[in-house]
Amino acid sequence: MGIMYFIYMGLVLIFNRVVQSPPPELLKWDTLWELTLFVDLVLVRYRRFILVTATIVAMLFTWWRLYRRYKQMQLRHVLDELRYVAAGNFEHRIEANLSGNMNDVVHSINRLVESTVMAMEEERKIEQSKDELITNVSHDIRTPLTSIIGYLGLIEEGQYSSEEDLKRYIHIAYTKSLQMKVLVDDLFEYTKVRQTSTPLTVQTVKLDRLLEQIAAEFELESSRKEMAIEVEMKTKELQIEFDVDKMARVFNNLISNALKYGKDGNLIRIEADKVGSEAVVSVINNGKMIPKESLDELFNRFYRVEASRSQQTGGTGLGLAIAQSIVSLHGGYIYAESNDKETKFVMHLPLKQTNC
């Protein structure tokens, strides 16, 4: 645009000089012949400037045509690349070595493709997760249900030799029914706490009192297993805001796990401390070490450390997944550590809730 403006101003100057203020000898024409001479004189006097101007105009026009064609080629290239991506080649990215605004457009397209691929991958994982959930629930329901049907069938057909056998069959069917109820309840709780919109009934709690109360509720079970539960408050009078019912569920799940899988030890420690704006609560047992490769999987639903999904320890495999979801709802996080001396589940919880 600057060059075109320069040419335009040059032509204006020529016009002003020749037409408005021409040399006296150029003004003496009264006939067509004299006018022709006038034009010839102008062309002779200013021919160099006119030639230069015409050359520049021609060059600019040629450049404009080439630049326009180059832009069209870039656009066709981008469109071809988009068609290739749209055909299902989502791993492909358009090369961003173009000029001008087209480069910004390509970058935006690549970011859009990446976000779309991520959304599709997330959707695929959700669908896969749903399928796995159905498979696991079906497996865990089918096992006790088969036992219930079997023993009730024996009772229905009168295939028992004594009242003792009858009571035993009824007891087994009842126990398996309770096992199914626990699974359904845990599944319902897991589904509920997985929703980020789940409301929290937050109140200020003295953490030492709550932990002592929960530990006391396990006193009978721990004594049967010859295990002790100790609560150690490294920060006295530690107050925290959370949903008491939901967090009590977390502590119950962690202590229950420690009782089930820490049976090789004789002590469960619950430690609580204030670190900055967080409360750090640890549930520790000195039972069998958890393999390192299993630590990250512990909080996945239905995951068990033993490869054969043994039912010897009971449970649904949802306890730790529920605990993690509840802690996340409170804006905290939980992880596990394990060595040959102890296994530790550590929770970091904000002292105050800001999203409720």
UniProtKB/TrEMBL annotation:
Entries under PROSITE patterns matching the protein: HAMP, HIS_KIN
This protein's name = histidine kinase
Please name one Pfam family that this protein belongs to.
HATPase_c
- Key word Transmembrane present in the record? yes
Identify the EC number(s): 2.7.13.3
Could you tell me the membrane topology recorded for this protein?
A: Multi-pass membrane protein
Locate the transmembrane regions by residue number.
44-66
Domain (Histidine kinase) spans 136-353
Annotated InterPro entries = HAMP_dom, HATPase_C_sf, HATPase_dom, His_kinase_dom, HisK_dim/P_dom, HisK_dim/P_sf, HssS/ArlS-like, Sig_transdc_His_kin-like_C
Its localization reads: Cell membrane
GO terms for MF: ATP binding; phosphorelay sensor kinase activity
Q: Which reaction does it catalyse?
A: ATP + protein L-histidine = ADP + protein N-phospho-L-histidine
Residue span(s) of domain HAMP? 69-121
Q: Which terms are listed as keywords in the entry?
A: ATP-binding, Cell membrane, Kinase, Membrane, Nucleotide-binding, Phosphoprotein, Transferase, Transmembrane, Transmembrane helix, Two-component regulatory system
Taxonomically, which superkingdom? Bacteria
Q: Listed GO cellular component terms?
A: plasma membrane
